[in-house]
Specification:
The chain is α/β, with parallel strands linked by helices. It contains 11 helices and 11 strands. The chain is 38% helix and 18% strand. The chain is globular and about 65 Å long.
Length: 328
């Protein structure tokens, strides 16, 4: 389902999700899965969570013997999809593919229709990636310092795009804005592809996103890559400096993705899913596709992933307070 207008968060939470078939008896790990496995993505098609979710779904279909289906449920920084999975039957047949926005939304919204620490159970991390800082080629800006200087000369006149309020792309740019002490206006979209399109046309002047969504327009010269957001340079853009190297010390943002099941999903099923995903991440064709997307595999145990997410929620809440980003 593609939402074409910006829907208030409260309204999204009221949208009914498809009821899980609760009348069926739960599978044991030996018989799981007994029907297709749905991987819910809280974002539109084309972005990293969706693309990587589809890569994994295809291989999980082979490993588990049941079809893996990606179900896009965009809205409010991924919270609509998260709500659907949090309320699904805890039998392993409805899973959630997330981006770093999962740890961002608690810092953006004062109320959520789920508890990100209690209502889902981690399966594993699936990828990590630095973002790329891009501007329209027509803007004439060739460095981070030039961008900051332009923004300071035109306070409130430049825009930055994102995949939606509360998305990781939103938070990464808000943190850049606060660190650089510039006044630029947020323009949220319902998906990253729409944000990329409007950046290419110059409707917005700044965007931060994963290499996979930006590589083609950068190669075609429609967007100019100014920097990457990680602690170190990324293999996808080895000649592009980090934001810190480009003159904004202390700034970094690294995106990641992972997979969850509803809380109370039996541990043997969680473990079976974990083994299947980790096997998938080691496959040569999956590794080559990851490299083409500019991301790296992020295999973890379920416990390691739960701990990582908990620490990220705490870290990002602290960064939000420091940057002056107030929850809505």
């Amino acid at each position: 389902m593609r939402l074409r207008t910006i829907v208030p968060l409260a309204a999204i939470w009221c949208i009914s999700s498809t009821a899980a078939p609760g009348a069926q008896s739960p599978d044991s790990a030996a018989t799981f899965p007994s029907r297709p496995v749905r991987l819910v993505s809280g974002f539109t098609s084309g972005g990293p969570p969706d693309t990587i979710g589809r890569i994994l779904a295809a291989r999980l279909t082979e490993l588990l013997g049941q079809q893996g289906i990606v179900d896009n449920r965009p809205g409010a920084g991924g919270t609509m999809g998260t709500k659907i999975v949090a309320e699904a039957a805890p039998d392993g047949h409805t899973l959630l593919v997330v981006s770093a926005s999962y740890a961002v939304v608690p810092a953006i919204y004062t109320k959520l229709p789920f508890d990100p620490r209690k209502d889902l159970a981690g399966i594993t991390g699936i990828y990590t990636a630095a973002y790329v800082v891009v501007v329209p080629a027509s803007l004439g800006v060739k460095s981070v310092q030039e961008l900051i200087a332009l923004a300071r000369s035109k306070p409130g006149q430049l825009n930055f795009g994102s995949a939606g309020i509360g998305s990781a792309t939103h938070f990464a740019a808000e943190l850049f804005k606060a660190t650089a002490q510039i006044d630029i206006v947020h323009v949220p979209y319902k998906g990253i592809i729409e944000a990329v399109t409007d950046t290419m046309t110059g409707r917005v002047q700044l965007l931060m996103s994963a290499p996979s969504t930006l590589s083609t327009p950068v190669k075609e010269g429609k967007l100019r890559a100014l920097a990457t957001t990680g602690r170190k340079r990324t293999l996808a853009y080895p000649d592009t400096p980090t934001v810190a190297e480009a003159g904004l010390p202390g700034y970094f943002w690294e995106s990641w993705g992972g997979m969850f099941a509803p809380a109370r999903t039996p541990r043997p099923i969680i473990d079976k899913l974990n083994r299947a995903v980790l096997t998938t991440l080691k496959m040569p064709d999956v590794q080559s596709r990851y490299a083409a997307l500019g991301v790296e595999a992020f295999p973890t145990t379920p416990a390691e992933f739960d701990k990582f997410v908990d620490l990220e929620i705490t870290r990002i809440a602290g960064l939000a307070r420091k940057a002056g980003i107030k929850p809505q």
